Amino acid sequence: MKEHLFEYLLRLGDDSLILGHRVSEWCGHGPILEEDIALTNISLDLIGQATSLLKYAGEVEGKGRDEDQLAFLRLEHDYKNCLLVEQLNGDFGMTIMRQFLFDAYRLPLFEALIHSSDSQLAAIAEKSLKETKYHYRHSAEWVIRLGDGTEESHERIQKAVNSLFKYHVDLFFTNHVDDALLKEGIVPEMKAIHNKWMESVKNVFSEATLEIPSNNWEQSGGRLGRHSEHLGLLLAEMQYMQRAYPNMEW
Amino acid sequence: MQLAMEQKYSQEELEKRFQDKIDNDIKIEPNDWMPDAYRKTLVRQISQHAHSEIVGMLPEGNWITRAPNLRRKAVLLAKVQDEAGHGLYLYSAVETLGADREETIDDLHSGKAKYSSIFNYPTLTWADMGAVGWLVDGAAIMNQVPLCRCSYGPYARAMVRVCKEESFHQRQGYEIIAKLAQGTPEQKEMAQDALNRFWWPSLMMFGPNDDDSPNSALSIKWKIKRFSNDELRQQFIDVTVPQAELIGLTVPDKDLKFNEETGHYEHGPINWDEFWEVVKGNGPCNEDRINTRRSAKENGEWVRAAANAFAEKRKMRVAV
């Protein structure tokens, strides 16, 4: 059970870590000052979540790895984040759509995980849920604003949907890890999370006058460590200090 | 209120009443009468300050994605976010003087408005995050603490909050550099190199020598400024040199010595040619910094247009 919980915590922790990294790339480049503040804050929340989740993952694993060793010193295929979060920022519309598709998944997931039979995971979920509610409100409001704003903004955010929608199945990937944890009451049934996600997406898209792409093209593999080309470059940057100056205190 | 005042009193009386308030440490508020030159000086100074906060996000933002551990990454993110917040208060303070935020920002992008020259130096290593916090925020605090008592109310109040956060920034910077100075030989070298590169530009942050500072006398009379450039610079050196010594780093000034009689450090000559070159736009990063800010604005144009269009549509729907 330990190794399953470890695996599951890596998925959650890596999602936060990699998306936190991506969002932090906006710092100083936002479309308005208020968004610079909002995006930096979201990134900060995500890095905080990654810290709690990876710290706990290290404890569960029991091999003496701490949150920094897990965050900075694994190889690319050992990262278990979904493909969605590692995708490039693109324009503000792409960043917002990526965030929305993710927040709409994370919100019901954390809502369920606060009832986890694992008390540590439940506590982390409770703290993260408060943050995720704000993230969801922020991203959903922007999706609606951009979708129902100008012709240009509508076109851009629809393009973002068309480009990112194929990664959504990866969010709901399950295997024997989830089955085992579900039996123990540690994680919720993914089907229910998927349904709630679909409901949010439909409601927000309807208000934003956006459409779900008609093709069924799907991309997944993130949870198994099979990533897109973008992750390697992201890690090269993120791991730079730890790789260039090994075994030092900072 | 201002109009009524202007009708009731002559220009001379208005100026006298204004100066009396300042002499009695009564704050000037947005709707009070004030001389045009006072307003202009404040608009220039506060907007320069706001621009410095915003441009100042870039050299530190440069290391967020490469921070060496999660704790440092979170602290750096929080610090850069604070700076964006300071920019926001300060732009709001400028608006109380009748200036327009958009126009103020356009003046930055066109080169008409200045910002602190220190941000035109590059951040080359992780140790620079320490040096920037320790020295640059340290120097900023010296400048800004007296501004909490500035005669203009909105600016003084904004500075109270800004200074609280800046003092955290200074401490986190010193903590980074102290950790490196106690680390491996590579880390020590990184720390010393950062001090070597940031020391002199930090001294320049206080502005030209008092003899060459044209705006100072009036600003002191108006209690916008409370201390001269040289006084503040001296205070910074006196505080900072022992901090460097404490962690075993060497201040890169061979003429630096402590004068037992005055109780102050004496320093070598500052390269004012370099200072003026950077102010004119010829520093290592001037072009990059402004181009980055400009493209943030240009790339965000469609987002702002969408937000406005959406707000209009909603207003119409509510009206119907």
Written description of the protein model:
Chain A has 250 residues and is mostly helical. Chain A has one domain (2-211, 220-244): Ferritin (Up-down Bundle). Chain A is 69% helix and 0% strand. Chain A has helices spanning 2-24, 33-61, 67-72, 83-86, 92-113, 119-147, 151-164, 168-171, 176-183, 190-208, 229-238, 240-244. In chain A, helix 6 runs parallel beside helix 10 (190-208). Chain A starts with a helix and ends in a 6-residue tail after the last helix. The mean pLDDT of chain A is 97. Chain B is mostly helical and 320 residues long. A two-stranded antiparallel sheet of chain B has the order 1-2. In chain B, strand 1 and strand 2 form a beta hairpin. In chain B, helix 7 packs antiparallel against helix 8 and helix 7 (127-144) packs antiparallel against helix 11 (229-246). At the A-B interface, helix 2, helix 3, helix 6, helix 7 and helix 12 of A face helix 4, helix 5, helix 8, helix 13 and helix 14 of B.
Summarize this entry quickly.
The complex is a heterodimer of chains A (250) and B (320). Chain A has helices at residues 2-24, 33-61, 67-72, 83-86, 92-113, 119-147, 151-164, 168-171, 176-183, 190-208, 229-238, 240-244.
Please report the number of helical segments of chain A. Answer: 12
Distance between the termini of chain B: 38 Å
Strand count of chain B = 2
The unreliable regions of chain B are: none
How much of the polypeptide of chain A forms β-strand, as a percent range? under 5%
Overall, the morphology of chain A is globular
Rg of chain A (C-alpha, Å): 18 Å
- What value does the average pLDDT of chain A take? 97
CATH architecture of chain A: Up-down Bundle
List the secondary-structure elements of chain B in sequence, H or E: HHHHHHHHHHHEEHHH
Question: Which features characterize this protein?
Answer:
heterodimer, A: 250 residues, mainly alpha, Ferritin, globular, B: 320 residues, two-stranded antiparallel sheet, 14 helices, 68% helix
